[in-house]
Amino acid sequence: MMQHYVNPEPFDPYAIDKITPAQERIYQAKPLQLMIWRFRRHKLAMISLVFLAFAYATTLVTEMLAPYGLTTRNIDHILAPPQGIHLFHEGRFVGPFTYGFDYRLDMDNLIRVYTPNRDRVQPLRFFCRGDSYRFWGMIEGSFHFVCPPEGGTLFLLGTDRLGRDILSRILYGARISLTVGLIGISISLFLGLLLGGIAGYYGGKVDSLIQRIIEMLRSFPELPLWMTLSAALPVDWSPVVIYFGITVILGLLDWTGLARAVRSKLLALREEDFCTAAELMGAKPSRVIRRHLLPNFLSHIIASATLSIPGMILGETALSFLGLGLRAPITSWGVLLAEAQNINAVVLYPWLLFPVVPVILVVLAFNFLGDGLRDAADPYN
Hints:
The chain has helices at residues 21-27, 31-40, 43-58, 62-65, 166-202, 204-219, 222-231, 239-253, 256-269, 273-280, 285-293, 298-321, 333-337, 343-348, 356-376, and strands at 86-89, 92-106, 111-123, 125-135, 139-147. By secondary structure, it is α+β, with helices and mostly antiparallel strands. The strands form 2 sheets. It has a 3-stranded antiparallel β-sheet, with no helix packed on it. A two-stranded antiparallel sheet has the order 4-5. α5 (166-202) packs across α12. The longest helix has 37 residues, at 166-202.
């Protein structure tokens, strides 16, 4: 008779497939933690996140960062070229400084000619008193992190046709251009979630009506529609009211894509068992949508919203460039680019195009960030 060996040790179900502590940490992680880990692996998205965080942080202290005031004019340096920052002069360390300009008028070509004067060394000032301002329009102040030299100039990106420092105006314009996207996406997100949620949950005639509205809005060419609505704003409105009017227009026209995404997700999720169980337990439709359906694809909503912000920034820039969006005295990147419409000015003074650089960088950063969030939205994929 065959003898069978019986191991007296307790049975360990994990004896065959042992997992390491690192693997166990991953298997037991929550979905949010998995999303964070996967997002961190997207290097471009991480760099973009840091860049955008820095860009938005600068809008909090714009007045202190800008070396000049928003409307400060340097009438002796109209359309002056960018100045470089130097550390050494004739082999000797001096510290951060600029060279002064010698100016003459070229009567043959009718242009201003600025030549750096190597004998005029102008050391920069740090943590100093400069042009006065009203911090966020409320508190009087004159403190700057960097100030022009005493009796000198600091035009890192040159000046415009009125002698205003372009770098300072770009910093001030960032506060408007960057917040337009945030306010606009807030309106778009609210409408997209509301109407998309109603269409996806109820279906039927309600869904058909909302879809026809979406199709009608999407059938219009986007830019001409923006231009038409922006041109309808009264010219006697204050700049602040026009600013909010532009953001509302951008938000009201950009919710259709998000609404469709929400609708398609809700159509799929409303048939799931957890949704049926919530309804059988007496949960109201608003609670089912808010507590059970939306959280299941919240990450996708965040990714979609992130990808929509650069479209709104470009929309405001395009409208302001064409003279139909924000207008002076409000300063945005689009308003600054309006001065570059004259091709002759661009050929002679190419630094007038510098405001397009932050637009490109911010749009690319938002796109990379959106790609990273979209990849991390499904950590189990």
